[in-house]
Amino acid sequence: MHLHPITKLQREHSNMWRVQQVMHLQLERLWRGEPTDSALLANAFFYMRKFPSAVHHPKEDLIYEKLLEAGTPLAKEVSHILTQHEELYEIEDELIDLVLQLPKCRERVLQLGRRYLSIQAEHMDTEERLLFPQARKLLTASDWREVRVHFEELKDPLFGTRVAARFQSLYDYLLREAADDGLAVPGAEPRAAAVKTVAASRRARVTRHA
User: Fold this and answer.
1) Would the N or C end of the chain have less CB density within 10 A of its end CB?
2) Measured between alpha carbons, how far is 14 from 110 in angstroms, rounded to an integer?
3) Distance between CA atoms of 46 and 146, rounded to whole angstroms?
């Protein structure tokens, strides 16, 4: 059985949220002056820069294009989301470089990292709360057939069937966190509840030290 494109995007959001929790926890350690794994943090940002930009966001962009063609009343929100995609890429590029210079640029990493997580929380909340339901409502069966044809099924180097060597330490970290929290193992089917509560959890975590 093939998953609906929106369901696939929601599952990718769930995986991306888990990577963002790695960022959040490492930034908290940095803020408290505790030992921080800069390589782990850099790889988390590198994953968010390379996989979502190549696979996840192009899928969304195609759906949002269809939404605009359908005359969605959420055209302003669509435009804002598309602009945020580019903004996130720029912040990720800067953070990858800055994190590798720690502890020299500690304050800038904290400032930009928190801003990044705040944007991501608002971004995915808007998509899941407004744009995804709107797409399910307005796009036709013909639209979804076209979307499926253009969805490029690239392998996820972290949550796919095989973990890329670069992300092995990040994968191992997520496995340990999953065991501690009773969550699903990355690459396995995520819990349905995770998709429903992801936006609220993101907002609660990233605003603790705003």
Assistant:
1) N
2) 24
3) 30
In the chain, where are the structural domains located? Answer: 5-206
DSSP string, the chain: -PPPHHHHHHHHHHHHHHHHHHHHHHHHHHHHT----HHHHHHHHHHHHHHIIIIIHHHHHHHHHHHHHTT-TTHHHHHHHHHHHHHHHHHHHHHHHHHTTTTTTHHHHHHHHHHHHHHHHHHHHHIIIIIHHHHHHH--HHHHHHHHHH---PPPTTTSSS--GGGHHHHHHHHHHHHHHTPPPTTSPPPHHHHHHHHHHHHHHHTTT-
How many residues would you count in the chain?
Answer: 210
Q: Which class would CATH give 5-206?
A: mainly alpha
Tell whether omega for the bond before 73 is within 30 degrees of 0, i.e. cis.
no
User: Of the candidates 199, 196, 75, which has an alpha carbon nearest to the alpha carbon of residue 131?
Assistant: 75
Q: From residue 129, how far is each of 99, 138, 157, 170, 209 by CA, in Å?
A: 32, 15, 28, 29, 25
pLDDT tens digit sequence for 114-135: 999 999 999 999 999 999 999 9
Q: How far apart are CA 201 and CA 210, in angstroms?
A: 15
pLDDT tens profile 11-56: 999 999 999 999 999 999 999 999 999 989 999 999 999 888 888 8
Rg, Å, the chain Cα set: 17
Top-confidence residue, 102 or 181? 102
